[in-house]
Amino acid sequence: NLFYYLTYEGAVDLEKEQDRATREGKESQIMHFGQTPIQLWEERAHPQRADISRDRLIGGEGSEYKIYRPSKKHERKGPRDEPVVFWDLEPRALISGKVCSDSKLVALSKEGHLVTYRWWSVDRATAEGKGGSVPFTCGIEHDKAIKAFKDSAEFVEHLDRSIQIPTIPSVFLNNGKVTAIGGMWDGRIHMVWAEGNEIFEKYFSHGDTVTTLATDGKDCFVVSGSRSGEVFLWRVTSDFKLQLKVTATPHEGAVLSAFVSTELRMYGASGEDGRISLFHIFNGEHFRTIYHPQRRPISSMALVCSPLAAVIFFCPEERVLYSYSINGYLLARVEESHAQVLSPQVTRSAQFMDLLVYGNEKGEVLIREAPFLELHKRGNFSQTHPVLSVMLSKDRRFLLCGCGDGEIYIMCDPRAAASNVRSLDRGLEGLVGPRM
């Protein structure tokens, strides 16, 4: 049995195609109708399809939204409109986070604390048959300082204080047990083992400060970008170390963001030179460069694939969000009232349409439909602190946000109920609340 010839890898050489219309037609054929994979799964087990028949997903039709805020409020400082800079954040600010499983999420604070939360998609009172008004249970399990930015054998902090970025780049691997951290002046990447509280690997491959890190979310690939325009692709080994796979220097100036899409089999990076460089994830070959119309800095980017493969990026100087097709055609342009797009994430609705979810310096979270950027929902999570890290629960029914006050804020449909009520045999002192 044979498929259409364009679906096979290596069947056509797009670089040798002289006719522009023919080339774009072949690219569109490959992008929209797929490619016969050379490898089916990166993971050992076949991923199970989520049961969405009873779930009220974020972005679903008819979904209602309610924001659950911490029970104890901190001192208010008034509305925040200025752009977020890492050095100005409170020590407790949650700069990155990840939902690791159905019962665990982790977050990293500015002061170098790794905070582990126990999480259930059901209220404890509901599980005990007492009835409850909150459709989830979340509380801090551990809060400990880790050697995030400085080794105990060294007396110098290596963070590069000359870079003006919202958060120090960091990503989580191995269900939050391993944290990769950049942002150090000599270009190093620290690999921190949380349980042993030790830096078990240091990588000095970059020639300058690592300004962004991104992962595929499946512990297969990590992408790093530096202040000198380098973009590196790393393979994650079985023991959660990084193996350098592809090196490139496609940018002039700092790389400000990166994004990995396993569905498109691509990764990309954007920089202050107004470029977005796209690469094939399995062979590292450069695919295309997309430019800002006036070559202005691009601070954030994301890749979406349904219903149309596209690149979405934000220009802070214009305060404009752009959407371009993967072939480089402008699809949409939206003016924003905020100066930053923070922690952009892509999720999928019950109708299998991609949604872009991101925070900003005003404490808001916006949900837009891809690729034409129609506003689906705007939620005001905090009037005094920025939303720094955006996370989605594994069942896609809860939107969790780490904010500048060190708290987790949660948005969901208040009617949400877990398909299977979990047994809560481990007590927590409270729901989402202040640090313990």
Question: Which percent range describes the beta-strand content?
Answer: 35-45%
Radius of gyration: 21 Å
The count of β-strands is 28
Number of helices in the DSSP assignment: 2
Major sheet: arrangement of strands: 1-28-27-26
Which word captures the global form? globular
**SSE-based structural type:** mainly beta
Low-confidence stretches: 417-436
Helix content: under 10%
Q: How can the largest sheet be summarized?
A: 4 strands, antiparallel
- N- to C-terminal distance: 61 Å
Give the mean pLDDT: 85
Order of helices and strands: HEEEEHEEEEEEEEEEEEEEEEEEEEEEEE
What does this protein look like?
The longest helix is centred in the N-terminal third of the chain and has 14 residues. β20 and β21 form a beta hairpin. The chain has 436 residues and is mainly beta. The protein has 2 helices and 28 strands. The strands form 7 sheets. A 4-stranded antiparallel beta sheet has the order 1-28-27-26, with no helix packed on it. Helix content is 4%, strand content 39%.
Give the SSE layout:
Blueprint: H1 20-33, E1 66-68, E2 94-101, E3 104-109, E4 113-120, H2 124-127, E5 137-145, E6 170-173, E7 178-181, E8 189-193, E9 198-203, E10 210-215, E11 221-226, E12 231-236, E13 242-248, E14 255-261, E15 266-271, E16 275-280, E17 286-291, E18 300-304, E19 310-315, E20 320-325, E21 330-335, E22 342-348, E23 354-359, E24 364-369, E25 374-380, E26 387-392, E27 398-403, E28 408-412
